[in-house]
Amino acid sequence: MPAYNEEHRLDPTLNAITTYLTENEGRWGTWEVIVADDGSTDGTRNVGALAHPRVRLLTSPRNRGKGHALRLGVAASRGHRVLTTDADLSAPIEELERLDKALSEGNTAAIGSRSVPGADIAHRQHRARELLGRAGNLLIRRTAVPGIRDTQCGFKLFQGDRAREAFRAARLDGWGIDVEVLHHFHRAGWPLAEVPVRWSHRPGSKVGALDYPRVLTDLARIRARSLRPADLLATALFLIMSVALYSGRFFAPSHRYLTDSMQDQNQWEWFFAVTADSVAHLHNPLFTDLQGFPDGVNLMANTVMLGLSVPFTPVTLLFGPAVALSLCMTLGLAATAAAWYRLIVKRVVRRRAAAFVGASLAAFAPPMVSHANAHPNFVILFMIPLIIDRALRLTTGARVVRDGIVLGLMAAYQIFLGEEPLLLASIGMVLFAAAYGAVRRDVARAAWRPLLKGLLIGGAVCLPLVGYALYWQFAGPQSYQGIGHGDNAGNSPLSLLAFAERSLVAGDAQIAGSLSLNPTEQNAFYGWPLVAVAFAIVVRLWEHALVKALAFTTVAAAVLSLGPKIRIPLTDTVYPGPWALLADKPLFDSVIEGRLAMICAPALGMLLALAVDRAAASRNLTSQYLGLLGVTLALLPLIPAPLKSTDRVAVPAFITDGTWKSYVHEGETLVPVPLPDPGAAEALHWQTAAHLGFKLPGGYFNGPWGEDHIGIYGASPRYTSNLLRDVRYTGVAPPIGKEWRTQARQDFAYWKAGALVLAPQPNDGVLRTVLKQLTGQDGKWTGGVWVWDLHRGS
């Protein structure tokens, strides 16, 4: 019993305990009461009941906290069982019977609880204290002791040896020691029982207002100490791997450009900038007319990743969108690897080294490296493993309502990170569930009802949270109906066996380029050694249901990724693919089907984790050597080289020194020549460098075109924008007559153009001639660009 300044309560408490134990000597056998005085400054050490022959007093020279007193007292105990109780005896000593019964049933600790059915609370605490306690217990359950509703009730019975070990390992001196000790039991796998007790609040509690934040601090310390060194090392290695991948840009993000991102880096920095601007000025974050003027951009229909671009607003405003995007992508990739690692450790293998291998492939597979150039929504996938784990929890039927609610919240957040990755992950989960259910029908029969119920609950939670944003996306201004990617967006069968361009050892840019849409869409490229090793793993471990389900998921996703038409390599033979069944359906019609091969990355990673785990457990050195050698040879060719980067094109002084402000009046736009589009979007960088001070016609985004609102990349074309783009790329200009000048005046008026700006670029001489003919005036060279002031002329 810990005691601090308890001279008025200690005497009746000790008398009640010693009387009860004496009267029940036959029930309890030998016993003693240890009072651990925590440096009391009153008469606690002199109360009469301490003279009882079976009461022992331990003293501390100064007050250090309940935790120190409990550690001192338990260390001095000798009993087969150890009861800890507070000096106010809020739970009567007679409740010891209930706790003892729980230990007799095989538990190592019995926790008196005020929060489980059967508890009887005679006098309650103040409402505010009660609410704080509930909030604290919720946090404790989430961080340290899952499943225990009331960790802070002071009435607990332990097996003596286990108690002495747990308290000896404890380090906290404050109120958090209860959590620390129970966390020790939980990690050790020692069974705990939460037992309802009678309880009555006693006035004079030593818990003050400052003790609540102290307990939070203690929780953080417990959580930090509970981390395994191997887990910390794995996380650190993932971060190092991510920084190495982005090393060409990470250390100078504002001055370096990822070459293979094409125009996507400009686009994504603009997304972060416009989101930060919307948050700072309380604008609608789902729409803007800063580009695509005057029609604007439906930001929800473009993957602006509000789930991260909004939280990163302070970073964007303080350091700029280039730094924010670089930091977000680097940390996000490392977090994704850590999330897969956690899932694999929890669900697949226990050996940390095996889980590290599997998570490394899941997060740094060739498709992930390809998308790391330009698509943070396909790189920052840390929510996907969490969603998978929560769905698996539902199948147990243990806490369906709670897990369903959490799943709904997770899905809602993932929608604001990326809808297409969530769709692909859902396809992968359906494939896995179908395969596992076919192999383990007993599991499927037991799991489908709680899973369905949880999914319905999750949907009911998710839809209200995302409903308005989705309405805006599909029915709001500048929404569109699907977006086509041509009929060749599926993978070639050869791409599944070939190596990606950025593979350090075996990469071949020419081969990879011929088998993919572009450097950011190398969606397969797992290499024939990995495919061969995976096949060997499946054959060797075929008896396991998990292996069968992972194998089916991998093969099915790979076949789906071939697209609606599968062309047999080196022939003209084409067969319909299974993706044809979904290709024209809503949502699926916007998917680049080659990306379905990304589902293979975590599935293959788990197969490798199983193989490494099995090899490490083998006592046969030959099997061990061959297994680890095979995995090494499969992964070695896939190690990625750092992403290519180059010095960034400097923003013209006309923009950076603010000269543009004298040409573009309020309500007008600055018109780069040619207008920004998916092929040339450097003007978006100009705009972010000018802190979004001017608006742009044209742009790089997804928007509608035509009466049917078909999705296209960029703004709806106009005659003048097409003319300027064609001249830029061909160097050939058509004869400019009255009709072209009239059309140009109409387009300039539509764009509310204040000035035309031509930066040095290929064919800029021809462009200058065309602009002079369209406007009837010569351009002015200023700030490193040619400028046509449209207030003076046409």
What layout of secondary structure does this protein have?
Elements lengths: L1 E2 L6 H14 L1 H4 L4 E5 L17 E5 L6 H11 L4 E4 L11 H9 L4 E5 L6 E2 L5 H17 L12 E4 H10 L7 H12 L3 E5 L1 E2 L11 H16 L2 H17 L1 H4 L5 E3 L5 H18 L5 E2 L8 E2 L7 H4 L3 H7 L1 H27 L4 H13 L1 H6 L11 H12 L5 H16 L3 H21 L1 H35 L5 E3 L25 H6 L13 H13 L4 H16 L4 E3 L6 E3 L23 H18 L3 H15 L9 E3 L5 H4 L12 E4 L9 H8 L12 E4 L4 E4 L5 H12 L7 H14 L1 E6 L5 H12 L4 E3 L2 E5 L5
Parallel strand pairs: 1-2, 2-3, 5-8, 6-9, 13-19, 17-20
Antiparallel strand pairs: 4-7, 5-7, 10-16, 11-12, 14-15, 18-19, 20-22, 21-22
Helix pairs in contact: 3-6, 5-8, 6-7, 9-14, 9-15, 11-13, 11-14, 11-27, 13-14, 14-15, 14-17, 15-24, 17-18, 18-20, 19-20, 19-23, 22-25, 23-24, 24-25
Structural notes for this entry:
With 794 residues, this protein is of the alpha/beta class. The protein folds into three domains: 2-226, Spore Coat Polysaccharide Biosynthesis Protein SpsA, Chain A (Alpha-Beta Complex), CATH 3.90.550.10; 233-261 and 320-638, no CATH class; 653-789, no CATH class. The protein has 30 helices and 22 strands. Strands 4-7-5-8 form a four-stranded mixed sheet. A four-stranded mixed sheet has the order 17-20-22-21. Strands 1-2-3 form a three-stranded parallel sheet, with helices on both faces. Strand 14 (565-567) and strand 15 form a beta hairpin. Helix 3 (66-76) packs across helix 6 and helix 9 runs antiparallel to helix 14. The longest helix has 35 residues, at 441-475. The protein starts with a strand and ends in a 5-residue tail after the last strand. The model has no long low-confidence stretch (mean pLDDT 92).
